[in-house]
Amino acid sequence: MAVETLTPAEAMAPAKPQRESQMRLMWRRFRQHQLAVISLWIVVAFYLVAAFAEFLAPSDPGAYSARYTYAPPQGINFFVQGEDGGWSFQPHVNGYRSEVDQAAMRRTFVIDPEEIIPVQFFAPAEPYRLAGIIPMSVKLMGVENARDPFYVLGADRLGRDLLSRLIHGTRISLSIGLAGVGLSLFFGIVIGGFAGYYGGWFDSAVMRVIEFIRSLPTIPLWLGLAAAMPKDWNAVQTYFAITIILSLIGWTELARVVRGRFLSLRTEDFVTAAQLDGASDWRIITRHMVPSFTSHIIAAATLAIPGMILAETALSFLGLGLQAPIVSWGTLLQDAQNIRTLATAPWLLAPGVCVVVVILALNFFGDGLRDAADPHGR
Amino acid sequence: MLRFILNRLIAMVLTLWAVSFVAFAIIQLPPGDYLTTYMATLAAQGERVDPRAIEALRQQYGFGEPYVVQYWKWITGILTRGDFGQSFEWKAPVTTLIWGRLANSILLEGLAVVVMWLIALPIGIFVAVKKYSLGDYLATVAGFIGLAIPNFLMALLLMYLSFVYFGTTIGGLFSPQYESAHWSLPRLWDFLSHAWAPVLVLATAGTAELIRILRANLLDELKKPYVTTARAKGLPEWKVILKYPVRVALNPLVSTIGWLLPALVSSSVIVSVVLNLPTAGPLLLRSLTSQDMYLAGAIIMLLGVLTVIGTLISDLLLAWIDPRIRYGSK
């Protein structure tokens, strides 16, 4: 048996109780949900893509090339077979060979395995500003000769690179989800907080309004509001207008959560104690009540993001949300609306895959967060 | 029961009033009024504008007067004459345009609700009884995917798959020759052979949700002592499950129609656009893009009214099957 040796000072000091912060406890519980942890990493990865869009996208999302309309995805291959039959490491894409489809009377592209276009990582590029701030002149990948085709995920109607557009669309779609939830959260906390803390007629009025809004079909309403947007608004204006329109309906769920929390906490002993101590309402709310349910609010907000992303995608898909020069998953999917187009270029559905993955990941992550935030769970 | 119905009816009238207010607000939202747009289109088409006709319209809708007056003229027109105003794009009264399409919407959504229940009920019972079996996991995974794929994406995918693998395009509700025919057996068959796709697409998300709720409810019920009692008395297993716990577990499920319906109406708009169905959805989209606001307002209002009435029906249904609600909410 090992005998622990203590220095006199340590032996004299009273044993410090092990304390862990609320956040650490939550994190520990959260880590037990494997699916939630994996989802967290997926979500983080998507937001990183959104943050470094300019660096990751091989080309400008608006750059078009009439030569390569609906060019199929090239993919990236990493090994080439040399003359002697041995394989060597050389990241590359294959060139295209164009063929004329006699039946449909149009040009189609076929991947030409003979033609090898080397791909460079950290390739030099035209100087640009990352997120509009940091000047850079290196991109994650690129081809040596700018005239060579480089369509990892294929091209669209105008020969624009789908991968680059997808990456830039990620930035818009994910940020509009965050911004919409942020705004909803603001409305939700202010309105729901007032209703829950003071109760009375204001509470019942707010609850009736929330019930009313939730009993309406949202898409027709959103469409009606979005259609009122003047057509000549610029990108930034439409972006914010859409965010506001989405949160006009989105605040209700969060307000309900906040109100519920306030109602249940209002009668807790520690709140009564603070009231008897003569603390002001403001102090009670900000110092005593809010910290005890922040985690719940964060979980509820996370679970609200997928709805926002879906709503933006649906609106833009229908043509009443964000408009053409802005690239979002919804505007990208607009190109895939036509069955003929879809049959020629099924890769245009790629933004849809992103939507599904992100929605699933955010849902699992939010569920895990909610379970972890609930101290009575399990 | 009468008192309950009366309460609900009063609440519904208030809600409908609020719906009409929202619809009217949307009509008023775009800059400029309907008359100016109307005159502009007429002038653009090179037609002569009769000042007397314009004046008559101005009188009828109260343009230039306060919003309250305009709202009053609009709503009394709807309530007394069933007049929803004029569609300037189609140059026809709104009422002649929407009823047929609205009927299609109701038909599709009704079918979707039925299909949802038909699929969700057996699967929900199965996964609750065989908890943690392979089938349970499969249903859970399928349910999550069903929830995560947006409806319109599902429609696109279905369209693509049927085009690539079967060489057919799905879309529309009728073949051209049955478009305006009267209902008959061949027309019904034609309708069903078109409608399965949109109904299936509309039903997926709701089905997944219903299965989840039914599973949770039923799991709670199956633990209760009365189930053990029934089993101990020697009832066959199917009777033990179907006769008592399933019936109790169904009650909360009926109440889900209340929030299922808005979502369903919502998604039917976008699915109809994708699959090119003659329902209210594409008409709404078109009227909104061309700023044909009386038409758009009427559709938004009627979709809202439909949803509210549907919710009321589900509430009454719930009160009818569950006495606790009938007597509890005095």
UniProtKB/TrEMBL annotation, chain A:
The main place the protein resides is: membrane
PROSITE patterns from the xrefs?
ABC_TM1 (PS50928)
Give the bilayer topology: Multi-pass membrane protein
**Keyword Nuclease attached:** no
* Positions of transmembrane segments: 35-57, 172-200, 212-230, 236-258, 290-309, 345-365
Domain of life (superkingdom):
Bacteria
Query: Alphabetically, which GO biological process terms does the record hold?
Result: transmembrane transport
- Has UniProt tagged this entry with the keyword Membrane? yes
Q: Where is the ABC transmembrane type-1 domain?
A: 170-366
Give the matching InterPro entries.
MetI-like, MetI-like_sf, OppC_N
Q: Where in the cell is it found?
A: Cell membrane
- Keywords assigned: Membrane, Transmembrane, Transmembrane helix, Transport
Q: What is this protein's record name?
A: Peptide/nickel transport system permease protein
Source species of the chain = Devosia crocina
Automatic annotation (TrEMBL), chain B:
Alphabetical list of InterPro entries matching this protein: BPD_transp_1_N, MetI-like, MetI-like_sf
| UniProt xrefs under Gene3D superfamilies | MetI-like
Record-given protein name: Peptide/nickel transport system permease protein
Q: Supply the SUPFAM superfamilies for this chain.
A: MetI-like
An example GO CC term for this entry is:
plasma membrane
Q: Alphabetically list the UniProt keywords.
A: Cell membrane, Membrane, Transmembrane, Transmembrane helix, Transport
Family membership noted in the UniProt record: Belongs to the binding-protein-dependent transport system permease family.
Membrane topology term = Multi-pass membrane protein
Every copy of the ABC transmembrane type-1 domain together lies at: 102-318
Kindly indicate whether the keyword Cell membrane belongs to this entry: yes
One Pfam short name: BPD_transp_1_N
**Its domain of life?**
Bacteria
Q: Which BP terms from GO are recorded?
A: transmembrane transport
Q: Where in the cell is it found?
A: Cell membrane
Q: Which organism is it from?
A: Devosia crocina
Q: Where are the transmembrane segments?
A: 9-29, 106-129, 141-166, 195-214, 253-275, 295-321
Its chief place of residence is membrane
